[in-house]
Amino acid sequence: MYINFWYPMVRSEDLGPDKPEKVKCLGLNFVVFRDVDGNARTLSDTCTHRGGSLSGPWELGERPRIVNGCVVCPYHGWEFGGDGECKNIPSIGYGTKTPARAKVDSYPTVEKYGIVFAFLGDLPEKERPPVIEVKEWDDPKWRANTVLVLDVPYYYERSIENGIDPAHNEFVHPTHGHSAINRETYKVRDHDVIDGEQGWGMVFKHRYAAPGLKGETWKGVEAPPADIFAGTETFGPNAMITEIEVAPGLKFRQYFIEQPVDDNRTRIFFVNMRNFMTEPKNDGPIHARNKVIAQQDIEILSDLYPLRTPISNTKEVLMPADKAVVAYRDWLAKFDDKGWRIDWNQFKARNSTGEIAFAIPSPGRRSSGNWVLETVPLLKNREARAHAKAS
Ligand code: FES
Ligand SMILES: [Fe+2]
Q1: Nearest ligand to the CA atom of 292
Q2: Nearest CA to ligand 1 atom 4
Q3: Fewer CB in a 10 Å sphere around the end CB: N or C, the chain?
Q4: Is 43 in the pocket of ligand 1 (CB under 6 A)?
Q5: Residue 187: which of 158, 217, 221 has the closest Cα?
Q6: What pLDDT sits at residue 222?
Q7: What letter does residue 2 receive in the DSSP assignment?
């Protein structure tokens, strides 16, 4: 898992004006809420007083949990603004100056495509990777389904690797054509893997046979007339865009923007764009269909071992059809070399002592000191990752 990328936190429609939401991402808790202007804000969830959770519990308190745009800690009522500063400490009197050290980390937050994104890291604005772009969002020829949220019980890198794997479709998704495989001729066709259009990832495009159709040959391989083009671009460690051209000019573009909850849970925010069957009445059936396909992947991916992707490709037997997976891992290595990867083994071991509270470093840490929470341990580079030991 990496700091310094934009992560989806909650759907806009799920973030009300007076209820703070608890979100777990990168192994840590965050509180997301709306300020007086209705803008979404994201803070580290740990109150610097004595460790209360700023986001909860909602049901117990009768007192409002957002006051004057501040989130109120349910334990002793300290009030934190969207900038992370503590504005009021009731025990010393409302309006009394609060200690500077009472601050919590505040993360840049934007809302796009029906999703609240937070930048979980400390890079200054100019150096930050951008939020993923949903290019068709404002194009009237395209229709977006409302964001579908899928909770899956596995590590996010396993999920991304599945999305860039052209060899699993025939086997995991029966409707994608295993029955049509001709054992004499079937193989995953050659495809190129190049750098992605949006930067921060790779892209491949692949042509494969649609189910149950027979036809001509293409480069010596059986190629039914209704061949389908499909391809995927990755974006950062946690997002990908799959394009499926079901017939000439008729396309789905599917954005999977993933929230790595911890090392065995992921929440996927799925934005499905299409330029055909654009009438709203098709939204429901398309959602239902996507859920069936997702469930087929979930069943396979819930059973992979080890939990996380291996550090070395020599720990698996990789084939040409895995070349997009290799390219994605090469991009991860670049993020490792920027020093953005969380040292998960060390974090897990120290966190489990139950004596230390951690936070993802926020940009504010670059301009001021004296922070109460310890920042998550990070790995310096790929080399350090290879030598990091579970302790
Ligand atoms: S722990 Fe939050 S106000 Fe005391
Ligand atoms: Fe799949």
Answers
A1: 2
A2: 76
A3: C
A4: no
A5: 221
A6: 44
A7: B
Rounded distance, CA 103 to CA 122, Å? 16
Q: Which atom of ligand 1 lies at the shortest distance from residue 51's CA?
A: 1
Domain 1-131+342-391 has CATH 2.102.10.10: yes
Q: Please list the ranges in the chain whose pLDDT falls under 70.
A: 58-61, 175-181, 208-227, 389-391
What is the rounded distance in angstroms from the CA atom of residue 357 to the CA atom of residue 350? 9
Query: Which 3 state secondary structure label does DSSP give 315?
Result: helix
Measure the CA–CA gap between 44 and 23, rounded to whole angstroms: 10
Task: Judge if pTM exceeds 0.85.
Answer: yes
Ligand number nearest CA of 293 is: 2
Distance of CA 54 from the midpoint of ligand 1 (Å): 8
The pLDDT, as a whole number, for residue 61 is: 62
Residues 6+ apart with CB under 8 A from 58: 19, 20, 65
The pair of structure tokens assigned to 320 is 């040409």
Cα-atom radius of gyration of the chain, to the nearest Å?
A: 23
Would you state the pLDDT for residue 145? Answer: 87
Tokens of 23: 């979100």
pLDDT digits (tens, 9 = 90+) for 263-314: 999 999 999 999 999 999 999 998 898 899 999 999 999 999 999 998 889 9
Determine whether the shortest distance from the Cβ of 78 to ligand 1 is under 6 A. yes
- Residue spans of the domains in the chain: they are 1-131+342-391, 143-333
- Ligand 1 centroid, distance to 289 Cα (angstroms): 46
Distance 112 CA to ligand 2 centre (A): 26
And the tokens for 212?
């149950």
Residue 318 C-alpha to ligand 2 middle, in angstroms? Answer: 18
Report the nearest atom of ligand 1 relative to the CA of 52.
1
Ligand 2 centre from 321 Cα, in Å? Answer: 14
Ligand 1 site, residue 75, Cβ cutoff 6 A? yes
Fold of 143-333: Naphthalene 1,2-dioxygenase Alpha Subunit; Chain A, domain 1 (3.90.380)
Q: Look-up: residue for tokens 């010596």?
A: 220
- Write the pLDDT tens digit of every residue in 30-86: 999 999 999 999 999 999 999 999 998 866 667 889 999 999 999 999 999 999 999
